[in-house]
Amino acid sequence: MNRSIAYRVWISDVVSGNYIKQEGFNPNYIVLDDKQVSRVNVMATVVGKFLSEDGNYGAITIDDGTETIRAKAFGPDVKKIDAAEIGKLIKFIGKIKEYNDERYLAPDFVREIKDPNWLTVWHLERGEPKVREAPTPSEPVSEIPTSAPTENVGATESNETPPTEPTKTEEPAANTAEHPNFLELIAKLDTGDGAEMQAVIADCKLSEQEARIIIIDLLKQGEVYEPRKGKLKVL
After folding, report:
1. Is the full-model pTM beyond 0.70?
2. What is the CATH number of domain 1-164?
């Protein structure tokens, strides 16, 4: 059986789309642009990661600039996300799932994107984000690759040829001294299971975009983590 098409989408569409459950072996899906989307192709930055000690469960939180979502893996599928590192840009292909009122993704294919030009191509082909600018790695961007990836990815996505990698530069460390109040604010709003991200953004007296950049910065550097979607905890 051929896999369902993996459509290029924004994470905000996945989170807000109407989730349709089907019977039997038919895949559940959301409706986007008159298409039944059960499998997605996302380019995003890893902002959180958890692996269980026994190796039977793992989760990464990814952010494409419009919203965040968790990708959860169980058993042998954990190896699919094992190499995904916080702060790195990845191409993620997987199925849309829902459990206990949480919309999440199940990974089929995860690969680090070392040439940030692909993000520019992705935005040009998909259109600009609806909410905010996507977080990007710190490598300098030179020219847009001449060969862009295909719009929809089917069963042969693992055979596509990656672009030539540029010379790798070190990602600058976050200067947490510039925003100590964020750590204090998160700790203050933490009622036990974490502080609501939206509450932190609302109380920080910065614009939403500025606040999200600082939160992503803190997540990348391991100052805070996301125990579950939309919650923040100070380490």
Report:
1. no
2. 2.40.50.140
